[in-house]
Target: ABC transporter permease
Amino acid sequence: MAKPLIAGRVPAILPDKTAISAAGPAAERPVLGGNLVSRIALAAAAASLFAMPAAADITIAHVYGKTGPLEAYAAQSHTGLMMGLEYGTDGTMEVNGEKLVVIEKDTQLKADLGKSLLAEAYGDDDAAIAVGPVSSGVALAMLPVAEEYERILIVEPAVADSITGENWNRYIFRTGRNSSQDAVSNAVALGQEDTVIATLAQDYAFGRDGVSAFREALAKTPAKLVHEEYVPQDTTDFTAAAERIFTALKDNPATHKKLFIIWAGANNPMGKINAMDPSRFGVEIATGGNILAALKAYKELPGMEGATYYYYDIPKNPVNDWLVTEHMKRFGTPPDFFTAGGMAAGLAIVEALKEANNDTDAETLISTLEGMEWQTPKGWMRFRPEDHQAMQSMYHFRIKVDPAVEWGIPELVNEIEPIDMDIPIRNTR
Model:
């Protein structure tokens, strides 16, 4: 695809009249000929062309945990971001003639490093927009940097409610789902009559925010939350936690007893707890969606229900069709959970720049992004003006097992649209 000429740039001056015809009639004579006046006129015209200011590239910084326990999420997020920029610009990686340049910075999942790298991106690299990070803990450290430099940070895919809640500032926009969207959609899927639920989550911002939001959402359903269990992120032995959960549930007279697991990254406890045979206490495991590698453990739990952010075969729209086709062609696998999120962020950036006519001033971008609607692999999203959280559909699923597929398939039960979810506005600023 031919790329448009970048505004303010000119082709190299060649020693013939075709390259310099824009300089005017006096320049239509060859450079090495004509009288002195003509040569002076030509030189002046050429100098004026080179003096025209070249259009600056628009720098986007992807500040994310390329290495560490969440590197699988990070790789998907970056692939999605680049494919979103590609799709949004019809393959040119340019908006209105200006080139998009993406720089990468690895937080290594360290909050202090993420904070300093974002400052470096804004201050030294002059990034107009930053995207990331993967970890909620790192994201919380990065938020004040965006406010200090008065630059846009699009949070993708960190989930904690506090990012667009009490720690939010007006320079923060989030394309990823938040803990409340996870929680409310799972409460819709699991909150049946005569049901009691226990939770198991990681003991940090993602896990605690997730349970807090789930507790609040579940209170609006007939189901009851009766026990909460938190364990360190690096836990590998879940025996003690599982026994406390089973004790809390086994003698409850409710018809349905569920253990809802909220987990990110390695050491997912679902398979290990399932191996303890919770069914002997009448306990069923439930959880939200996850990446394809984690869905392999779901194959042991046919019929398990929950709500997910994305599974490649669920949304039906042209953007997702392109993503699935191209990802299969390039990588030999379907796009994953966080690939869709990265693409949503890339598409949001392109749409905002187009609407703002490439004005990267933060105030212009804020006014453009607030309330903006755009198409993503999940369908339409909209940045809620009050807290800049992207409103989006979630998907109630039931696990189907197909011997030909190496993971449990989240088969769509129902699309849970934004209008079906009461997502609290938690920011206080």
Observations:
- The first strand starts at residue 58 and ends at 64.
- Confidence is low (pLDDT under 50) at residues 1-54.
- DSSP finds 13 helices and 16 strands in the chain.
